[in-house]
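Quick one: structure tokens for this chain, please?
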Amino acid sequence: MSTTEIGKALAGAFAEIDHATKNAANPHFKSTYANLAEVLDVVRATFKKHGLAVVQLPGALRVDGNYTFVAITTTIIHTSGEMMGTTMEMPVNADKNGRITPHAVGSAITFGRRYALAAVAGITQEDDDGNTASDGSADDETINIDSLRDEVTAATTTAGLRALQPIVSATGDEELAEYLKARHKKLKKEGK
């Protein structure tokens, strides 16, 4: 398959693309980084202008001995129909009991998507929060409290809020936990 048109479009996009602003904090290492939403915002605006789109799909989990991996395929598509992409595997950290939890899989997917997207879009970022990629001493993707508060606000059902409960609890943010309880109570009263 030809890559002439997508190559030209990517060259134009790379010349214009901004670097992502570090907008999230990793309290385990007292560092900051650009979260996935920030990297997506930077990429989407410039890619759209050049007829490009990006699709990222998680694959099946793969177990190799004591390690579990999730595949993430990142594909850039041009309006001409040309595309290019690659697949990478991210390790999934087990919890303290050795179990692979949905939260751990989600964290590995988010972490992998952010790094793959930054790489294919030519966005540089310091690996401030990547310290845990090999040792599992902290969550791979630190939760952004402001983004999580927005998700709680946007939830329109009690079921949606229940799905957010474990993530809110993991933050240890008491104010956010109280906010979630109040939203849950309000939606329950409204029969949602």
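The chain has two domains: 4-142, 144-192.
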